[in-house]
Amino acid sequence: METWLRLTMAAGIFALMIGLETLIPRRKAHIDRQQRWPINLGLAAVNMLLMRVSIGGMAYLAADYAQTLGVGLLNWLDAAPALSMLVTLFWLDLAIYWQHVASHHLPIIWRLHQVHHSDLAIDATTAVRFHPLEILLSMVYKTLCIILIGANPLAVVVFEIILNGAATFNHSNIHIPTQLEQALRWLLITPDLHRIHHSTLPEETNSNYGFSVVFWDKLFKTYRPEPQQAQTTMPIGLPALRLATELSFVRLLQLPFKALR
Ligand SMILES: [Zn+2]
Prior knowledge:
about 60% helix
């Protein structure tokens, strides 16, 4: 049930963002969609299948078991449901922020995460461009964080929906009117902010790690409000990986096992 709820919400938000990208694009398409979309959507399909046949439901099950067995901080404290929901949401968002920071600073995890950053443009399909091993690693990490805090099971489902929706939104190539964009920045990582994280400049890639709320980047001094170059023309991707031959579907699956450049 929770899987179908997550998938329906994800598909709805994805379709909405793709529609808005067509109606109000932020950047012109410099790279042909036909070159990128089969790869991004192909990785999404592989990842969905992999999770379906392996540990896809683990996060929710872990929270449910932890609650039944009374394991984890919130269960030990017997926290009220509303408090436990709120703490779970903030805790998991913070945990994902630190996972993202680690993905950039620990070479062994960067080997996986560079697949996400190798996209030469950024749109809603970039949000699902991940190496299958990074998806598996994320699920194991998230499950450990869930057990540690004794997460509220309902909050875990809500968090997955928020994380997915926020990632689709902040990778999207949509033009948001300036005043509205500036207002959204007080709370959210907007597409303009997250696009800076996909810049080819290393100092910009190593900023704006948040996925949903903007607080963690501000708190831990990784917030960067503007890119050095214009949002509409700045190059996206990794300087070392720019050839279509290097970015084929098979090459991307092999990428983590090759020497880092
Ligand atoms: Zn990243």
